[in-house]
């Protein structure tokens, strides 16, 4: 081998003993850090080194802040003996000195433990699995109603922290105290890479900076970087490496630069990463399982399938919808009864169990709809084409067909795989126009009128049973077709036809749930909505009481009835506000496996059994339900995972997580677009209603924009007003003005960009006027978009 081809082998290890051995044997050996630091041509690589904390170095950096974490063996013993409890650590978004631990296991007592103060949180990070020790009862605390964010830039502000911790412990009455504890050890870290921004150190030439995560539940992270000036004002990703006992914040390292803050692409990327939404393009392996184009229905496809292409089927969806899951038909039978069909895209025909396409769809779990972007669960060829029930093309469907009398009573139901050809793809508005128009009497319109008539009866019956009609202010943006910026913001309008489609989707879901549960009592995939514990309703009952209304919450039916009765002739919007508040009291609906649970009830729909069957293009749960139903009617074969209740339970866990994250990502997208809207709109004053009162703030809803925000009454560097908070009513007295839930106020809305990372809509009180608090309406257009230059520490 010639000399120039001779490769030098070097050995990289972080194991001290290994390195010594290698050097003894004449092998050049380096630690990872030494090697990376020797690559002088790529200095930026140093930033990506994990920050390894040497336990021995603890003495040099002074005081120890946190108590030691106990070793795993001790924790396990303690959990076994009941000295410690194991649970998931959930940090608070509103108060960085507070967290709760959700205890694992079935013990009804101490289900939720409160932790307050830095030392008791003891370096646990949101979602970690921790061991906690309960404090004696005389040290229990109540959840604080104070909003506190970690503004500190300075390591040595521990005295300030302690003062803030004292604020939390305000006088409370006995019954508000909750089981309180402290973290004694970490069982499993659940760290992930975090998005956020660099808070550059005030010390010139410093390499050590604090990183502020976008998620307020995550503590700031100290990183070392040489490129601080290029990373300022950018969204970056950082990973945590460790959290020594003598450090106020965890240590971490820089991973990736995402782009300019405020840029639409960057912010969407942050939003998807922060909510763990899988959004990479589909891989070749996944795409290889798609059907070859041009595609058409073959004789083989028609095996075990009914040809329903002659039926007058149509779909009704929001404008611009390309992933059409469902279509409907209604016709009169010779015996005078009505035949109604719900036809759902047959996605499980194209996605076969266990292949790469199936695995990827299961991992994604759901399609995520952002304000101007859709992250598909299945590739576009299926979602917008072959599985989309567009008009005038042959499509494969799974049909649920009822025979009903004119009073919407079901006489027979059957399920069949089918081939359909939709005669019209309508929007809700177009369908409504057809129903209302006296001039139109074609087949499609007659079918729609029949469906609408039955839907009204079905809805009335459902509501009589106690189904809830709740409200949430849903917002729609009107986008500029060129810039894609929001130019108008309004709450969504609902038509009768929205309700018509919804009734038949609910009916199909309930019919299918009964069928798959009859066939597979142990492994049907169902959806349940637990009844909220009575304490959830306290706020609703108190709020109604303050307006002299009584809300009963012992059953869904009594809640629905009392909401229907709760109206005020002088305050028509009150009923909507009560329904919005009632929505906040609800539990999350979840998927579960029938063999692993015995409570199937769906509280919100007042149905003893429910599942999801009608949206297989955008929900993976529906694909599983299709497969179960296909096996039940002999239209397809089964496979081992489909009848394994433990596998199904694991799948449900992922689906519940993905659905929750999709919901949060959608909200975050609306919040970001709302900011863009107010950025271009400037400052506006609008009417608002109080939804909640806090100790130092009120939370208001602005009906015009469906927008919620907080009006704070304590501002930094301003004299503090006299605040009296009463939790019983609840009310907040500021100077001489008292605020109750549902009071009408006027607020000024503007975009506050003083903190680039958390740009937020800022609201201030205009009316009622309180000297020193309210802002006159015509204040000059203050520019609060200039980040205030931090006072240099040197000026102290």
From TrEMBL:
SUPFAM superfamilies: Nucleic acid-binding proteins
UniProt keyword annotations, A-Z: Acetylation, Exonuclease, Exosome, Hydrolase, Magnesium, Manganese, Nuclease, Nucleus, Phosphoprotein, RNA-binding, rRNA processing
Cofactor(s) this protein requires: Mn(2+)
Keyword Nuclease: yes
GO cellular component, one term: nucleoplasm
Subcellular location: Nucleus, Nucleoplasm
A GO MF term: RNA binding
Positions of region (Disordered): 777-796
UniProt record, GO biological process: nuclear mRNA surveillance of mRNA 3'-end processing; rRNA catabolic process; rRNA processing
Keyword Nuclease appears in the UniProt entry: yes
Main location: nucleus
Pfam assignment, any one: RNB
All copies of domain RNB, residue ranges: 305-635
Database matches in InterPro entries: Dis3_CSD2 (IPR041505), NA-bd_OB-fold (IPR012340), RNase_II/R (IPR001900), RNase_II/R_CS (IPR022966), RNR_Ribonuclease (IPR050180), Rrp44_CSD1 (IPR033771), RRP44_S1 (IPR033770)
Subunit structure, as described in the record: Component of the RNA exosome complex; within the complex interacts with EXOSC4, EXOSC7 and EXOSC9 of the exosome core complex (Exo-9). The catalytically inactive RNA exosome core complex (Exo-9) associates with the catalytic subunit EXOSC10/RRP6. Exo-9 may associate with DIS3 to form the nucleolar exosome complex, or DIS3L to form the cytoplasmic exosome complex. Exo-9 is formed by a hexameric base ring consisting of the heterodimers EXOSC4-EXOSC9, EXOSC5-EXOSC8 and EXOSC6-EXOSC7, and a cap ring consisting of EXOSC1, EXOSC2 and EXOSC3; DIS3 associates with the base ring of Exo-9.
Family membership noted in the UniProt record: Belongs to the RNR ribonuclease family.
UniProt-listed PANTHER family: EXOSOME COMPLEX EXONUCLEASE RRP44, RIBONUCLEASE
Record's protein name: Exosome complex exonuclease RRP44
Organism listed in the record: Lynx pardinus
């Amino acid at each position: 081998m010639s000399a120039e081809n001779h490769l030098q082998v070097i050995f990289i290890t972080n194991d001290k003993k290994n390195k010594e051995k290698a050097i003894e044997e004449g092998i050049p050996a380096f630690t990872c850090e030494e090697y990376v630091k020797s690559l002088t041509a790529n200095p930026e690589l140093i930033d990506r080194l994990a920050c390894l904390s040497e336990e021995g170095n603890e003495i040099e950096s002074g005081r120890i802040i946190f108590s030691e974490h106990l070793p795993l063996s001790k924790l396990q013993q303690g959990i076994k003996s009941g000295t410690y409890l194991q649970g998931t650590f959930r940090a608070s978004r509103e108060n960085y000195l507070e967290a709760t631990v959700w205890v694992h296991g079935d013990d009804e007592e101490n289900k939720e433990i409160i932790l307050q103060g830095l030392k008791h949180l003891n370096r646990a990070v949101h979602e970690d699995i921790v061991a906690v020790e309960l404090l004696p009862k005389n040290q229990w605390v109540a959840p604080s109603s104070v909003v506190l964010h970690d503004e500190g830039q300075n390591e040595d502000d521990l005295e300030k922290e302690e003062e803030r911790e004292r604020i939390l412990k305000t006088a409370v009455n006995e019954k508000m105290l909750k089981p309180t504890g402290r973290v004694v050890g970490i069982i499993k870290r659940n760290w992930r890479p975090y998005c956020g921004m660099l808070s550059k150190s005030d010390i010139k030439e410093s390499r050590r900076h604090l990183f502020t995560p976008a998620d307020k539940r995550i503590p700031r992270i100290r990183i070392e970087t040489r490129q601080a000036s290029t990373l300022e004002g950018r969204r970056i990703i950082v990973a945590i490496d460790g959290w020594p006992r003598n450090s106020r914040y965890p240590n971490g390292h820089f991973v990736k630069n995402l782009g300019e803050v405020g840029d639409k692409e960057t912010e969407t990327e942050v939003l998807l990463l922060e909510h763990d939404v899988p959004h990479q393009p589909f891989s070749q392996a996944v795409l290889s399982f798609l059907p070859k184009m041009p595609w058409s229905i073959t004789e083989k496809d028609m095996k075990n399938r009914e040809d329903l292409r002659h039926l007058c089927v149509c779909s009704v969806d929001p404008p611009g919808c390309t992933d059409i899951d469902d279509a409907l038909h209604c016709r009169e039978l010779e015996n005078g009864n009505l035949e109604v069909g719900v036809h759902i895209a047959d996605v499980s025909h194209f996605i076969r169990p266990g292949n790469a396409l199936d695995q990827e769809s299961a991992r994604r779990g759901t399609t995520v709809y952002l304000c101007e972007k859709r992250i598909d669960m299945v590739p576009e060829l299926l979602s917008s084409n072959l599985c989309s029930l567009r008009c005038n093309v042959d499509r494969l469907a799974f049909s649920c067909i009822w025979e009903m009398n004119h009073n919407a009573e079901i006489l027979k139901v059957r399920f069949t795989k089918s081939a359909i050809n939709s005669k019209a793809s309508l929007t809700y508005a177009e369908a409504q126009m057809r129903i209302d128009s006296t001039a139109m009497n074609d087949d499609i319109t007659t079918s729609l009128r029949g469906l609408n008539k039955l839907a009204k009866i079905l809805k009335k019956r459902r509501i009589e049973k106690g189904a809830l009609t709740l409200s949430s202010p849903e917002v729609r943006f009107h986008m500029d077709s060129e810039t894609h910026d929001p130019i108008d913001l309004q709450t969504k309008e609902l038509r009768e036809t929205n309700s018509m489609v919804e009734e038949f989707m609910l009916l199909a879901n309930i019919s299918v749930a009964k069928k798959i549960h009859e066939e597979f009592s142990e492994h049907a995939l169902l959806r349940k909505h637990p009844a909220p514990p009575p304490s959830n309703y306290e706020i609703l009952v108190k709020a109604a009481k303050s307006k002299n209304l009584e809300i009963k919450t012992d059953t869904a039916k009594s809640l629905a009835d009392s909401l229907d009765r709760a109206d005020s002739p002088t305050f028509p919007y009150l009923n909507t506000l009560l329904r919005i508040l009632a929505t906040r009291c609800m539990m999350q609906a979840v998927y579960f496996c029938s063999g692993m649970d015995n409570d199937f009830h769906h509280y919100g729909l007042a149905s003893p059994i429910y599942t999801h069957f009608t949206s297989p293009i955008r929900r993976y749960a529906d694909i599983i339900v299709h497969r179960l139903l296909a096996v039940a009617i002999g239209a397809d074969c089964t496979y081992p995972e489909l009848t394994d209740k433990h596998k199904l339970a694991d799948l449900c866990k992922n689906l519940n997580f993905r659905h929750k994250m999709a919901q949060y990502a959608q909200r975050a997208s609306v919040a970001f677009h709302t900011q863009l809207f107010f950025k271009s709109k400037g400052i506006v004053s609008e009417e608002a209603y109080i939804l909640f009162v806090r100790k130092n703030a009120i939370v208001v809803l602005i009906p015009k924009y469906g927008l919620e925000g907080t009006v704070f009454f304590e501002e930094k560097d301003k004299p503090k007003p006299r605040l009296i908070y009463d939790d019983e009513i609840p009310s907040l007295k500021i100077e001489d003005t008292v605020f109750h839930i549902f009071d009408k106020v006027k607020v000024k809305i503007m975009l506050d960009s003083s903190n680039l990372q958390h740009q937020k809509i800022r609201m201030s009180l205009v009316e009622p006027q309180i000297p020193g608090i309210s802002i006159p309406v015509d204040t000059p257009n203050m520019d609060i978009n200039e980040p205030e230059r931090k006072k240099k520490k040197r000026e102290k």
